[in-house]
Amino acid sequence: MLVNLNDVLLRARRENYAVPAFDTDTSLLLKATLDAAEEMRSPVILQFHEADLEGRKIIQVTSLVRGLAEAYSIPMVLHLDHGENPDKIRRAMDHGFTSVMYDGSHLPLEENIRNTREIVAYAHERNVSVEAELGHVGGSDLDFNDTGASLLTDPKDVVRFVSETQVDALAVSIGTVHGVYKAEPELNLQVLERIAKVTDIPLVIHGGSGTPEDQMRRAISKGITKVNVFADLRIAFRKGLETANELITRQDPLPDELFSPIIQELKMAVKDKIRVFGSEGKA
After folding, report:
1. What's the CATH code of the domain at 69?
2. What's this model's pTM, rounded to 2 decimal places?
3. Which of 48, 125, 131, 158 has the most CB atoms at less than 10 Å from its CB?
4. Assigned domain for 283 exists
5. Residue 257 lies in a domain
6. Coil, strand or helix: which one is 44?
7. What is the pLDDT of residues 87-108, one digit of tens each?
């Protein structure tokens, strides 16, 4: 069933676990994610980017997810990740997205607040949840472009930002990065603790791939309720593809034969995150 972030994150905050948010920009990723989450009885957040929704692609995504929502019994959120263009964010909501993220983290605080507040007003009239970001998670984007150094979230700004925008979830920067880590990260849990003391809003980590399990569990115990994962799925996808290439000898492989190793690797990666995040059995 399709729900919004509030329907899954508020319980996660109360019970100290995190809901996994997976980028599912292909049908294989979508199938593997939903099958694994259903088997683990975990709620799940299905994420797409603005580029995934250009032209008719938004119809393909929303039609597919709405149809699948009737076939699975777990709660699922259809979420726009890192939306920066207000028109594209509103278009996603108008086509059935139950949750959106407005990313104004690169803007001055005043402008981030003003833009986020406008998105929230439009969304809440439609029972759509809104995630925003305060601070900046660095790393690289999907084209390997450097997105700049991370800027940790300032707890002093959190109270004002949440109060003036009325967002439903807040992505915070505590030491993770987007993409694949070049060295093992060290999360700043002291900053997270200070943030959690000044707000009860569900908190989000971006760049959840490759973060050591012990650090992730500690972050979740201190208030993180949503963790974004994509790079680890891409790694699993490639591993499954390599296995398929090794196993298949025929020149014209059947699609199921080719896709099966990929789906198995993806499902294992999804289930691993669900176990670490503590969302198993929470559907």
Report:
1. 3.20.20.70
2. 0.91
3. 131
4. no
5. yes
6. strand
7. 999 999 999 999 999 999 889 9
Give the C-alpha distances (Å, rounded to integers) separating 222 from 12, 122, 201, 249, 274. 12, 31, 12, 50, 18
Cβ-based neighbours of 246, under 8 Å, separated by 6 or more: none
Residue 23 lies in a domain: yes
pLDDT at position 142 is 46
Which residue's entry shows tokens 């809901």? 19
Domain assignment present for residue 226? The answer is yes
Q: pLDDT tens across 142-168, in order? A: 444 444 445 788 899 999 999 999 999
The per-residue b/e assignment along 225-256, b for 16 or more CB within 10 angstroms, e otherwise, is: bbbbbbbbbbebbebbeeebeeeeeeeeeeee
Is 154 annotated in the active site?
Answer: no
Domain range for 192 is: 2-277
* Tens-digit pLDDT profile for residues 208-238: 887 889 999 999 999 999 999 999 999 999 9
- The catalytically annotated residue of 23, 81, 103, 168 is 81
3 state SS of 58: helix
CA distance 90 to 80: 10
